[in-house]
Design brief:
Number of strands: 17
Low-confidence stretches: 1-6
CATH class of the largest domain: Alpha Beta
CATH architecture of the largest domain: Alpha-Beta Barrel
Number of helices: 15
Mean pLDDT: 89
Shape: elongated
Bound molecules: ligand C2E, calcium ion
Structural class: alpha/beta
Radius of gyration: 28 Å
Distance between the termini: 76 Å
Helix content: 40-55%
Amino acid sequence: MVQVPQTQEKRTFRAGDIILRQGEVGTCAYFIESGKVEILMERPDGSVHRVGTRGNGAIIGEMAIVDNGPRVATVRAVEDCRMLEITQDDFARRLNASDPVLQIITQVILTRYRDTLTRAEILGETGTFPPPEQVERGYVEQTDAVETIKIANEFQEAMEKNQLSLHYQPIVDLGNGQIAGFEALMRWKHPERGYISPAIFIPVAEETGLIVSASGWALRESCQALKRIESIRGYNRSLFMSVNFSSTDFASENFVETLYNILSATDVPARQIHLEITERILMQQPETARDTLLMCRKAGMGIAIDDFGTGYSSLSYLHYFPIDTLKIDRSFVKDMVEKESSRELVRSIVMLGKNLKMKVIAEGVEQLEEAVLLREMGCDMAQGYYFARPLPEDEIVTLLHGWTPKKPGT
Ligand code: C2E
Ligand code: CA
Ligand code: CA
């Protein structure tokens, strides 16, 4: 018998009650805890046929979990029944949390089952097999899922075989033109396909949970790199290292403990580490995120909101979380010279940051004009191709050696 956890909503139906009605759109399935139901199918001529009965431990209405298609049959309680309701959302949540191969196979089986039913129905009514395009649905999307599994497997291998590296992009203090710190950005050089964009592998790593060990590796590696960069003779200013984290990292059990361990093992002071997170991460589990961030902040780490302005519409959350830096998204910076609306938006974010006593970093600065405007607005720091691209550690060392202050507009 199928074991269903007892967290779902329980429903009671009396003998004779209709539980599902043929032709209506369904959004949930039912697990029969006790009682008995009959499955009835109405034919186009109006005649109703009993096509089966189901009792304890059976599941009914499972097609609703695959799509929002119409119920193929009516289900009526023959005896008083107790049911556990399984909603589409609940099923999707459970499926997404499962092994990717299991996800695909489950989806394929359910979709194929629905197609077979449709095909059988048309065959019964017309006596001819319908063309595939009339009944088949959803198979095209499976190729995405297969690609995801492939990337996930290869990414795991990449971690084991040291194919991952970090590039560091300088973040420049607009007040004095000096490099204030870096953002660590992950790079994956695939043996056959060359560099794969983080925009492709990061979401897959997040989905599969592989990001947790990748982030741990990135933090350790970037802390060690910071130590090496700082130890260059004649360079004794304190630089910060900004590292990106995902919601999967935040949801992992030992997140804060892992951070502490890495910082102490690499001997990097917490104040030199900034965590970059997006608004989305904060909103997924606000209470947990707040607790986690408070611990990090108390230890001295900086907390920066990445891609600021693109995510959440309300600003009230800025008070709720211990945030100290806003990173203005590249999309606003990119248009700020030509478009007044973008320019004013950037100005507002800079002012907001000042009022809330937060630092503001502009991302994606590509032209001198943008840098000049940002400096005039009072934006604290900037990052972008105008100053430097993300570079491997050895090139960062060379860059630091030859760096002359870049103070735009002076
Ligand atoms: P992000 O955190 O917003 O990182 C900034 C992205 O903008 C980087 O892309 C960087 O190379 C690019 N960029 C910097 N300056 C300029 C510029 O002037 N013009 C333009 N057009 N682009 C600029 P990248 O390295 O491809 O990374 C893409 C995204 O992947 C990152 O966006 C971040 O969300 C994610 N990512 C990268 N590394 C990591 C990582 O170690 N962990 C996690 N969780 N995510 C990462
Ligand atoms: Ca970032
Ligand atoms: Ca960003």
